[in-house]
Amino acid sequence: MTNFSRAVRRLALFLPAALLVPQPILAQEPAVPAPQFITPAGETPWIYEGSDVPRDEEWTFGELPNGLRYAVRKNGVPPDQVSVRVRIDAGSLHEEDSERGYAHLLEHLLFRESQYLKVGAAIPTWQRLGATFGSDTNAHTSPTETVFKLDLPNTNAAKLAESMKLLSGMVRSPVLSDTNVKAEVPIVLAEKRERGGASERAGNASREVLFAGQRLANRIPIGTEETLRAATGDSVSAFYKRWYRPENVVVVAAGDIDPVVLAAEIEKWFGDWQGDGPAVAAPDFGDPVAPAGADPANPVGEIGVIVEPDLPRSFTYTIMRPWRPVQDTVAYNEGLLRDALAQALINRRLESRARSGGSYLYAQVSQDDVSRSSDMTFVTFAPLTSDWKAALDDIRGVIADALATPPTQDEIDRELAEFEIVFKSQVEQRRVLPGPQLADDIVNAVDIREAVAAPETVLTVFNSMKQTLTPELVLEHTRALFTGDVIRAAYVTPATGEADEEAIRSALQETVAADTGSRLTGRAVSFEDLPAVGEPGQVTAQGPIGVLDIEKVEFANGVKAILWSNDAEPGRVAVKVRFGAGYRALHAEDAVYANLGSSALIGSGIGELGQEELDRLATGRKFGFDFETGDGAFTFYAQTREADLDEQLYLFAAKLAMPGWDPNPVIRAKAAGKLAYESYAASPGGILQRDLEYLLRDSDPRFQTPTPEMFDAATPEKFREVWEPLLKQGPVEVLVFGEFDKAATIETLRKTFGALPAREEPSAAVLNRGVDFPEAGETVVRHHRGDANQAAAVVAWPSGAGVDNLRESRHLEVLTSVFNNRLMDAMREHAGASYSPVVRSEWPSDVKSGGRIAALAQLRPEDVPVFFAEAERIAKELASEPVSQDEYDRVVEPLRQYVSRASTGNLFWLYQLEGSTVDARRVDMLRYLLADYTEVPPARLQALAQKYFGSRAGWHLAIIPQGQELATAANAGAAAASR
């Protein structure tokens, strides 16, 4: 795309030009013969067969004589990247009872060894090509498909050819030996173990109820321990031969290269592939069927009550219909839009009830075609108390009203405006849709057996549907959504005896009166009627910052703005507001209010406007209102568009100038926090989420996850007392990056942020308030109440913070990438761990302390000492000798490609420049960015390892099941650290 190319040229103005030159790693291959099987013009491509949906002309389709189908297109987002997807029409639903888990096991085995990749060579090979494993190179297995994914950066003809060769070898000719199966099964079992616990048990039990009698009831992709341990090379090969056949495969490629070249490579590497033996029809996935004797008017079937003491309450009931392939026509899609409108109307009413203090925390209605097994309408909610029936009755009353009476035209118009802004935004942003998303769109369409449509087509279909829409037609679709062959329900509760199957069955069979008070009424709210923030301020300084065409604007009240008006991303504007001192401004006793702020501060309103009025203001507009408390600042963030930018800036400024203090969002957030708290202890991952930040900050009370008792003690009045002065804090920095009129936006800033009263600057004591790192010593132990085979471990070292050594933080990213690769290899070798081991470097640039390097993994309890020992060993090795050139190249090339790709987008520059009005050195350090990631010599990495690892052992945390012999694990970990 020309705009992104222009952005890259701008980048070259201040980054070393040599670093932007594509790095040759492969010789050019001979020209590939022209593709022979592209669908000719005038003929219907395979994905549009039976459909009258207008063809998206940017896609080129083809079908090979062996049955393999493909789709390719030119796309320059990000520049020089090609995204490839290889989809196999086989997932866990295609497995026989003795094969459960084989589809997912094959996903692993294809990466392990294949025709062109030796054992263990896949990850380093893709890294040498510039692709990061886990993000650029990945795969997934679902009940209905297995998809291999590659996002290849800095692509040229040679790299594309090599990648297609490697992918074809993986898919066509994997090495499925007993040795490879035996080596990979423990890794899959480790992944299964990591997923286990209360949430997994509850999900599986719910699935068995909701899909009773169907294959989906007991065929989750991870499989069973019994079938996986019994797997052999022959048994896995039998599954592979049955389903890995060209007629079951779709290859998709979208990228910054001629689509004819993409098609030619696909035909070259997949064209002569032949299946082994005759094709086999897919199994019958089964239909949802009501039990004999069920009332046809209210066919309540299977009910499940799942007791999990560590999980919050959640209730799901479904109205189920058989899934059948459809003719994906314009009329069919108009019907889907009417269905979506009907759901949106009900969901808005349900949300309004929850906000005003209903009997449930949340409730939602949704329709989904699940795994080609059932067409389902879900009703999902979380009761606030043990009185699940009151919540169920309240929700069914709202639904009953929607089934009895057509919606008002005002309600319809409101939802149509919301839909329209989404579809118009997609049209505006079509030119910058990323290649990975486009490739995934084709894969998803194939999975659900439907076509694909360009954004313009979607908007056209929406407009045609809108012209024929009436309240009576919405009522008809609402009633269809709640009509089905069987109704099933699953209730997850922490309390034994709180409910039983018959009580739930009886409740669902009761006739519930329509809640006529659930309809939303209210006065129209207009921005023109809202009060001004204040007297427009004056611009006191304006000029370029020296990077690209970015400018800084300063106002008389001290507010500073950074603006970059560009057309690189049509239809998009990113806005970020930084104010105050973040966690530094909070006191030890404020932890619960810091937690509540993330979920209740925005919902508490602006001035006299509550959340409902703000929602009405947002109707037909693209707004955002994300809030976060950072180490050194509080932030608002939104993705909007030029047409709505003035109002977005007003909302942010008004939140600082005239905040509202509706107590209901605080009360609701308290309830949500209490319900979630006990679930943290259900797994090692939950304990990490609850305690790790708190522990790594030396148990600083500001970072504690609030307990139920803390939530109970919190009040809306105290919430206001804490947050009101924080919203008055400065400094204030506004960043606006995207497609907008700069002069007009500066004028809007004068009327909004420039009109704010002067901010209160934090004291020096606040600005210098830091956090400490815990002393290394005896292993810190936490317990979880999950499965006895689950544990987690962390080893961490303190590092740096602030802008002074910001370049060093980039060097640390390279070092931790090397550490990550080594730790993953070590844990797979010694403990059969999956891909969970990870090493991260955190370097907060807004503050002067709090940085750390942390290695963490989820594993078996008996492997915790192994993890401690391996992490400490690798740290010492990195400090004692430089990394090899190949190991260095394997991490540097993906980092080079990441920076090159990311720097073509506005968000990259926004994140790099935020905070630069407080510390201008951030701007100067941009010129070293790419070099810092790609030119740090191995000797420098060794020196960093000596600095951060060589002088001290790491701090250790073990999360182990209750009842474990903790002393053994703790002592072994400490001993490993001392060796």
From TrEMBL:
It holds the Pfam family Peptidase_M16. Residues 78-191 form the Peptidase M16 N-terminal domain. Keywords: Hydrolase, Metalloprotease, Protease, Signal, Zinc. The keyword Zinc applies. It comes from Qipengyuania citrea. The keyword Signal applies. Residues 1-27 form the signal peptide. This is Insulinase family protein. InterPro entries: Metalloenz_LuxS/M16, Pept_M16_N, Peptidase_M16, Peptidase_M16_C. The lineage of its organism: Bacteria, Pseudomonadati, Pseudomonadota, Alphaproteobacteria, Sphingomonadales.
